[in-house]
Amino acid sequence: MTLAIVLVIAAILSLVLIVAAAASRSLQLSGSANLTAQIQPIDIEAFRNLINMADDEFLRVSLAPRQFREVRRARLRAVAAYVLQAGRNAALLVRIGQAALASNDLRTQQAAQELINNALLLRRNAAFALLRIYSALAWPNSGLAAAGIADRYEHLSGSAMLLGRLQNPAVPVRLAARSR
Amino acid sequence: MLQAHSILWHYLWLAPHILQLALAAALIHRGMRRLFPLFLAYLLYEAVEEFTLYAMDVLPSVTWETFWRAFCVGLTIESLLKFALLGELFSHLVRPWPAVARLGNRLVSGTGAVLVLLATLAAAYTAIDNPQHAIISRAHVLEQTLYIIQAGLILFLFLFATYFRLSWDHRTFGILLGFGILSCEHMASWALAANGFLFERRQLLDFLDTTTYHVCVLIWFYYLLIPGKNPTTSAAPLPEHNLAGWNRELERLLQQ
After folding, report:
1. Integer angstrom CA distances of residue A152 from A13, A82, B166, B214
2. Preferred mutation among B165, B242, B254 to probe A, highest tally of A CBs within 10 A
3. A-to-B residue pairs, Cβ atoms closer than 8 angstroms
4. 3-state SS class at A176
5. Alpha-carbon distance B14 to B212, whole Å?
6. Cβ contacts (< 8 Å) between A177 and chain B: which residues?
7. With contact defined as beta carbons under 8 Å apart, do B185 and B148 qualify?
8. H or E segment and range at residue B38
9. Which residues of A, range 31-60, sit inside 8 Å of B by Cβ?
């Protein structure tokens, strides 16, 4: 009896999620005219500084263990905020890229294809990085390898700039708030 | 009205499968047989299976044991076809995007393995609701098991696409939406049946199942035969964000 109730609840929840996903697809098709305005540029350098292992090492030897854990947790929360935003931007770029795929211009299509692939890769990496960041929040003394995200984000920024230039050569396009 | 062998009962058993055959014919006529070969195979197989089961149900010469054995064999083949079809739909989604195709394939395999384990555990903990007719109980448990796996996989596909903001092709989406609704409802319905709920009024679950199936066939009709609208997202370039001032302020703050 209990099993049946559990399965019925699971089925209802699954159905709700599927219908919600279907509804979000419809909204995506009809109401996504101003996606570019939703992109929040990210400062790559600030992010790099936050994930600098040398800084972490310096803090480790300079601070008392308890203090270090507090500081490291605060830094990790900031890193998580950056990664979340990078992931959100990547999701927006996937949608912008998919819209650009409908273009008649072959170069724009190719640039859109590359942008989407890079954005998907970033979104994937962001998901993995968040897992690591949250586990590092639980164990602040462990290492953290999120540096790949910064490189991927810069690569993505380049793809977005190329696509933007192809679509409208007069308007400069920037994803990262500051590039090297 | 909600009785076994009423006019509505006959209609709901037969009509969706007649519609399925009509849909299969329309797909072939429109040259779409190569686009979704497994879906076409499913439509044809499901219609033949259900007509056979219907004939076995109404023919007095067929015993209930024979009916339920045929039911189990048909269900097993149908489920294998559905799992292959889910793979086909997933490949439609990720094939253009190598960045997530490999990860997606691994996640689908992993999710499938976990679902098989969970469904097997659920089957092991399901009591035989009808000991005098054990084959009927086993058929119910088999349905419950297969629909747990199907509903879980379909949910995973939707969540995967939503997370990566991958856009479904109009037709692929329609097929999967139909299967999603069908699998969730059938999972709940067969879980109730397998665990002895509504034992005396089992036909109510039959009505629920066949009505849902009818709705899903209509969903497939809509998505496969009516062209979808194109995305209205503007292909405008990304605007420049003037965050230099904000950065300077932050850097100054950091250097204090």
Report:
1. 35, 13, 19, 47
2. B165
3. 175
4. strand
5. 13
6. 241, 243-244, 246-247
7. no
8. helix B37-58
9. 32-37, 39-41, 43, 46
Which of B241, B219, B208 lies closest to B39 in space, CA to CA? B219
Q: Which helix (H) or strand (E) holds A42?
A: strand A42-43
Q: Considering only CA atoms, which of A13, A23, A21 is closest in space to residue B188? A: A13
- Quote the tokens at residue B48: 């033949």
Q: What is the pTM of this model?
A: 0.83
Given an 8 Å threshold on Cβ–Cβ distance, is B197 in contact with A167?
Answer: no
ipTM of the complex: 0.84
What's the distance, CA B85 to chain centroid?
9
Residue B127 to residues A3, B76, B79, B130, B193, Cα–Cα distance (Å): 10, 21, 23, 9, 11
Largest CA distance in chain B: 92
Per-residue pLDDT reduced to its tens digit, A55-81: 878 888 888 888 988 988 898 899 889
C-alpha R_g of chain A? 20
Residue type at A79 in one-letter notation:
V
A116 in Cβ contact with A97 (< 8 Å): yes
